[in-house]
Amino acid sequence: MFHARHLDGHHSYTANQDMVFKTVLTNEGGGYDSNTGRFTASVAGVFMFTVQYCSYTSKWAFPEIVHEGRPLQRSGHFETAEAVCASMQAFAKVAIRDKVWVRACSAYSTSDIYSEEIRRWNSFAGLLIRV
Question: What are the residue boundaries of the C1q domain, all occurrences included (predicted)?
Fold first, then answer.
């Protein structure tokens, strides 16, 4: 099980750029790498992954959860008034040493997210459901 979040501020990503969640809250088993933003499975099984992201004011955010380079789930959000958060989940049968991460969706040129300590957190988490 892991749970990591993004640092404060506005972050803009280009298509296919990895979103790295550097602040690790939980990392049982050490599978999440806060330098690359990638989770590497140490056991095979069915996993659930979840992402919360907050779009930057008047900008689109298009994150996707990726398993070994293939999208598991995509989302998009635009907010005109204020940065608002959305979430998405994905389930996957993952083999030992498989990698799962979050990146900006390849179908769009940019993806803008915003976070602040007091109100909005961008986060990525995963947990093993069944071996």
Answer: 1-131
CB neighbour list of residue 102: distance below 8 Å, 6 or more residues apart: 18, 19, 21, 37, 51, 63, 64, 65, 66, 124
Q: How far apart (Å, rounded) are the C-alpha atoms in residues 102 and 67?
A: 9
The DSSP annotation for 78-124 comes to E-SSS--EEEEEEEEEE-TT-EEEEEE-TTSSEEEEEEBTTTB--EE
Looking at residues 12-29, what average pLDDT do you find? 96
- 68-110 pLDDT, tens digit per residue, is 999 999 999 987 877 789 999 999 999 999 999 999 997 777 8
For 2-130, give the CATH class: mainly beta
Give the start-to-end residue ranges of the domains of the chain. Answer: 2-130
